Amino acid sequence: MHERILIVDFGSQYTQLIARRVREHHVFSQVVPAHLAHEHLGDDLKGIILSGGPASAYNADAPVMDACILDAGVPILGICYGLQWLCHHLDGKVVPGGEEREFGFTPLQVLKAEGIFSGVNPQTVVWMSHGDRVEKLPSGFERMAQSSSCPEAAIGDDRRKIYGLQFHPEVAHTREGATILRNFLHWVCGCKGDWTPGDLAAELIQSVRDQVGESGEIVLGLSGGVDSSVVGAICQQAIGKRCHAIFVDNGLLRAGEREIVEGTFLDHFDLDLTVVDAADRFLEKLAAESDPETKRKIIGHEFIEVFREQAKRFDSAHFLGQGTLYPDVIESVAAHGGATAVIKSHHNVGGLPDDLEMGLVEPLRLLFKDEVRELGRVLGLPEEMVARQPFPGPGLAVRCVGECSPERIQLLRAADAIVRHEFESRGEHEGVWQYFAVLTGARSVGVMGDLRTYEEACAIRAVQSSDGMTADWVYPSRDCLQAISNRVINEVRGINRVVLDITSKPPGTIEWE
To answer: What number does CATH give the domain 405-500?
Structure first.
């Protein structure tokens, strides 16, 4: 039995990111919806973390949680809404923030550099995202840190070991968030750290084996990316050749993608692989459609139909394997039954039909990309497969704003190949999460050969991230940008302008659709 931290989900976009940060410190974490938190106490529990969320603690429709959690006898850390819930349910007071709302990077002054702030720079930067504020602290609490607009940026009651942070230590934008969480886990909760990626691999393999049974078969949706490849490795170790990999060429792949996937898979897996050429089928369904949500759902539906058709080739293929990750889930649905907002429907989550008639095998559903990469290494996958740049399941469709005609997709594919080549040939891809081209849907006037042009604008998108939940834009070198611009305009007929996307996530998303 591992040491356990209970993470209570109040509907935050970052709830599972908290779990992921806890696991970074080799401590097992469990996410539960707020209304069921009281059912998950136990002797192995070392601490409780309350997530953020979109609600206001003082409203009648705020998420409900049994206040008995306060008497669980373990340390508690409230984050953002979690801090406000603590204050509201003790004898403090939470009010609307008015002009004192805070969003984004915020300087923080640490007033008590001990306990959870031990080793933290007294003048640091954190990520704020709140509209309400604490007007009155509960009895026994003291102010531990403040910002210019938020006096109660961090509070604590050392006697009861209950603490609250108005900012988000789990996001990469908070410079010393990892230190703060480590202090809470190891010094406040007394966790020793007894959980490793090897434990996770063994647990996931056994869970797939248990789910599929002695004779069940899996049709694995293989994209060639790290996610589906890791699922393939898990399924291979769980049920062997009862897992059948299906790679669908949907006409929305990058240049050379099909050849790379086929070669890499056959070199490293002992599973049968079927390549389905469905380019015409997908592009016909997408014809004249420009709404991003509709496009995603069309793609998801067609993928499922292809997998259903392929499953009929096998006697007991009643399961569909997917490389679904938690960022896909958290943007598509309320993953834990809370009030999480839907950002966009991912083809493998929001695009699934109600009558699927196949059990879903999604062992990575609660993991983030960097966790999956580490899991892949533990499972023995080669580094070139584990470190591949993420590529979305809907492919170039979510980088082609507007209609996905064959002609526009080909423009984008050619421009994207140039972007990737220039980044990689200069070594500027190292340490970059994703780098690609976007066909923006905008047209602009240009002049080429003394003649007027009116053609498409292409954007360069490059970001740095650790988990895909937050991201900062990357500024390539001038030489790289100039080479991309010159080559795209000269080599890709139909594009006459190249721009650079300098939007972080949030407020943007990594993909354009």
So the answer is: 3.30.300.10
* Parallel, antiparallel or unpaired: strands 317-321 and 359-361: parallel
Homologous superfamily, domain 197-386: HUPs (3.40.50.620)
Give backbone dihedrals phi and psi of 85, rounded to 5 degrees, phi first.
-60, -45
Distance of CA 347 to the CA centre of its chain: 14
What is the pLDDT at residue 255?
A: 94
Q: Which of 3, 26, 80, 87 is catalytic?
A: 80
pLDDT of residue 470: 82
Give dist(CA 403, CA 295) in Å, integer.
9
Q: What is the pLDDT of residues 5-37, one digit of tens each?
A: 999 999 888 888 898 899 889 998 888 899 999
**Given this structure, which CATH class describes domain 4-188?**
alpha beta
- Across 206-215, 374-383, 471-480, least confident range: 374-383
Distance (Å, rounded) from C-alpha 249 to C-alpha 281?
10
* DSSP character string of 197-218: HHHHHHHHHHHHHHHHTTT-EE
CA-to-CA distance for 389 and 416, rounded, in angstroms?
Answer: 13
pTM of the entire predicted model: 0.72
Q: Active site includes 170?
A: yes
d(CA 297, CA 314): 27
Closest CA to 34 of 73, 81, 74, 95: 81
pLDDT in tens, 269-287: 887 899 999 999 999 999 9
- Closest listed residue to residue 52, CA positions, set 171, 148, 143: 171
Which candidate in 26, 130, 168, 429 is catalytic? 168
Q: Boundaries of CATH 3.30.300.10 in the chain?
A: 405-500
Closest to 130 in 3D by CA, of 95, 163, 176: 95
Residue 338: closest CA among 15, 2, 6, 86: 15
Instruction: Work out the pLDDT band at 122, boundaries 50, 70, 90.
Output: very high
Tell me the pLDDT tens digit for each residue of 37-88. Answer: 999 998 889 999 999 998 898 998 888 899 999 999 999 999 999 999 999 9
pLDDT > 90? residue 477: yes
205 neighbors 197 (Cβ within 8 angstroms):
no
CA distances from 199 to 16, 129, 318, 363, 379 (A): 19, 34, 28, 14, 11
- 80 given a catalytic annotation: yes
Considering the chain, tell me which residue range(s) the CATH 3.40.50.880 domain(s) occupy: 4-188
Q: Is 331 a catalytic residue?
A: no
Catalytic residue among 3, 102, 170, 455: 170
